[in-house]
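Record type: monomer structure entry
Structure origin: computed from sequence
Chain ID: A
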Amino acid sequence: MLFDTIIRPVKGDLPRKWIADDFFDLIVWYEGDAIAGFQLCYDKPFEQHAFTWQHNGGNSHAQIDTGEDTPTANRTPILIADGPFPQARIVMEFRNRSPMLPREIRETVLEKLAAYPGQNSGDEREREWAE
């Protein structure tokens, strides 16, 4: 179940809310009272990916390269190009984990995930999630 996480404001960045559980991190940015964008990171314990939406710049899907290849180095994570977005699986997982979120956040995320064009990985597991 997704819950708010306490965060520090970042100078020069939009105000944001961080919501997380064991599978998702959802960062929502605001301009005034309106959602300006969000980043939904998923598959946290495995190969983490990010779906990013911005009100003025569309959306994207990427893998998160943690930068951690040795236990003695602490490198900055970066987004790298990745394959298809597993849309049906992520929409279903988000629906199941987000019933307690504010309605505006939940509906915005679900709407933008559903609108992402031409996605789904095409593998058997993705078809099972869609059914």
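Annotation 1: The two ends are 22 Å apart (CA to CA).
Annotation 2: The chain has one domain: 3-65+76-130.
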